[in-house]
Amino acid sequence: MLSRIGMGVKLPIRRIIFTETEKFDGEEFRLLTSQEVKQIAGRAGRIGIYDIGYVASMNSDIDFVANRLESDDAEIDQVIVGPGEALLKVKGLPLKEKIALWSTREEKLGYYRKKDVRDYILILDKLKPYQLEEAMEWRLMALPFDVNNDKLLTLFLKYVEECFVIKAQELSKPDPDAHGLSFYEEYYLKINLYYSFSKAVNLAVDENWVHQSRKRACEEINALL
Known about the structure:
The protein has 225 residues and is mainly α.
């Protein structure tokens, strides 16, 4: 739930309860930073709905949360950079190899750190059988979803089939798999994937359905909380 709350799913939340104070950042499990704690805790108490918000914690972590809330944020001394579209102009190599080579090239400026490209490589491997143009591979590779979520990756590949094999004029709309907090959280992310994939490949999007479905998912999540 941390990622959903942190990314700003619009919920009328009065109380945030930290059930854990660690997260996996793609490389390792680590403690939440002061910025992350403030971002998540700041969701408690929606302006115009509640006058005050409450923050609590399980597993005796409240002192850690309080310390992070009161701490000054660490100064930013590094910026993560990803590969640029200039790679598409390089001829003679598949996009996967160009991405891999880019990731090994040392940055001249010390305050730049290169983005982990393993998710890009995974997507490009999945797209290889479809023999898409590089520009399309690039757009799909850059879609904002968690490729390590099996259900989201399955939906992504379903959309690839619909778009490039079946030649559908519009992608199929996702449905919630069941009733429950985690299912509605995942459903919200599936709606986002439907929208971003459709936009990336220039297919028709049911904007009203996206709006209403996001709203309904948020209402269901709020009711379950």
